Amino acid sequence: MTTPLSARLRSWLPAGRSARRLIAASFVDSVGTGLFIAGSALFFTRGLGLSTIQVGVGLSLAGLAGFLGMVPLGRLADGIGAKKAIVALYTWRGLCFAVYPFAAEPAFFYVIAFLIGIAEWGGGPIVQSIVGAVEGDAARVRTMAVIATVRNVGFSLGAVLAAGALATESTRAFSGLVFADAVTFFAAAVLLSRLPAVANVRAGRAKADRPGMKVHDPRFLALAVLNGVLFLHTVLLTAALPLWISTRTDAPPAVIGVVVVLNTGMVVLTQVRLSGGSTDLRSAARRQQWSGLCLAACCVLVALAAQGGAVTATVLLLAATAALTLGEIWQSVGAWRLSYALSPKERRGTYLSVYELGTSGASAAGPVLITWGVIENGAAGWVGLAGCFVLTGFAIVLIAGRAGRAQATAANQQPAQDETESADETVAAGREASRTPADELSQER
């Protein structure tokens, strides 16, 4: 007897109602984002009449805004609560997209793009913080994997739905996609506003205002940077592979589309399944080491693709895409566990935002580094990048191991410290009880 599809879906989703509501909001958001991404190029150039250079400047400003605003937004979430912060950010994005169709002037467009960039990049760590609040430690990574899978499905669905509007080549239709995206943000904000009070995890006013809220842990900062290196897989997929395929190989241009479909399909089918087993710092670091090895294999296969004919190049490029996708999945799985394990609960928003700086930095600087340092140097550039990925994976294992030992030492010292403090308090209480009126009079004098 076959299991009904609805029953399979329920068993695949997290059991908690809060996590499911968060996933529903992520799906609604991603459908709208898919609508926008599919039509953004035509919207910017035909709908708003902007030049390609002006569009590039605006998108760069959005990336810069995300980098600058991520940590302040994380601290804000620690202060007012993650639930309130994410609802505000989704509302903010909805309002910005609602006015996007009126940003025909370049200066206005730059301002809106900057404001959108702040909210777009700052929301990810806050969502992760909410998952940490509503899910137990064992379920957090799997729930993040489900969210990533659902978002990929939503992006694809949104792109398909946008096809009809794009076929009309009407500027009103392009603006309609943007307005539809704004509606999805408002809808997601409504869904998130119904999360329970536990989702509004916060550090408290006194703790959030302390200078100690800054992240000074060098191991955590190093892991954030190294995670950013592995996150270059996004640049490989969206920029490096298309450029390499079209300019340095004999593979047909249609392979570019096949690469994207293969990547999306593998993520949807395997992301949740491969998220298992990452239960502590050591296993999470191993996942990121596997990511580095897979990404290195991808680079070598891409370099070899330039040496063969059309069929050989196509086979090698598809194999490289499969390796890249495995690297993408294990990078994210390891990153979720590492960042959770090393983030103090009362300061999670700040820590997760700092950790995310590595990925935002890679997204901002990666395209220039990859196109100039790798593609321009041909096979040597790809081999060099492969070596970089391998070394990054080994470094993560080494640093995470030291962080784990430091945590274990601190945990062992804490009970002894608590016992000492308790003993001191008992002695102090005994002294206080044995004091005589003469002692008090002498102290006053």
Summarize this entry quickly.
Helix content is 82%, strand content 0%. The protein is built from 16 helices and no strands.
Distance between the termini: 90 Å
Number of strands: 0
What Rg do the Cα atoms give?
Answer: 25 Å
Helix content: over 70%
Number of helices: 16
- Chain-averaged pLDDT: 84
Taking the sheet with the most strands, its summary is:
none
Q: What are the segments in which pLDDT stays under 50 over at least 5 consecutive residues?
A: 205-213, 425-429, 431-445
Beta-strand percentage range: under 5%
Overall 3D shape? globular
Order of helices and strands: HHHHHHHHHHHHHHHH
Query: What structural class should be given to the helix and strand makeup?
Result: mainly alpha
Protein described:
- By secondary structure, the chain is mainly alpha-helical.
- The chain has helices spanning 5-12, 17-47, 52-80, 82-99, 106-134, 140-168, 171-193, 205-208, 218-230, 233-248, 254-270, 281-305, 310-341, 348-373, 378-434, 437-444.
- α11 (254-270) packs parallel to α13.
- The termini are far apart.
- Residues 205-213, 425-429 and 431-445 have low confidence and may be disordered.
